[in-house]
Amino acid sequence: QVQLVESGGGLVQAGGSLRLSCAATGNIYIVNYVEWYRQAPGAQRELVAGILRGGRTNYADSVKGRFTIYRENAKNTVYLQMNSLKSEDTAVYSCSADVIDMATRRRTYWGKGTLVTVSS
Torsions phi, psi of 67, nearest 5? Predict the structure, then answer.
């Protein structure tokens, strides 16, 4: 069994910072591509950032220069450092990961999400 667990969400004032974590646990052989998504109330889910196992990253235009995605492969954990937060960043943030387990089965897993609320 593989699980993704997000943490680090909460309430922060505009201009503040938060760091989200996405930890993969279970019968893991390797964690490949990991992405952070967010979904605001009444809006569609959008891709925020992604990172390859080797470290290559990509970002949504709306967060470039403010958010940083990075990973610790030894811990099977990916982080999203969010700085200069704006009220429009308020959303439920979820991570997804492409995982190969010890039985060499490959699939995409999703976490349940963590709420980020930015007050103006």
Answer: -105, 145
Q: Please, are residues 40 and 87 in contact by the beta-carbon 8 Å criterion?
A: no
How far apart are alpha carbons 52 and 44 in whole angstroms?
24
Strand ranges across the sheet with 18-26: 2-7, 18-26, 77-82, 67-72
| Maximum Cα–Cα distance across the chain | 48
CA dist., res. 35 & res. 18, Å (int): 17
The torsion angles phi and psi of 49, rounded to 5 degrees, stand at -160, 155
The answer, yes or no, to whether residue 74 has pLDDT greater than 90, is yes
Per residue in 13-55, pLDDT (tens digit) is: 999 999 999 999 999 999 999 999 999 999 999 999 999 999 9
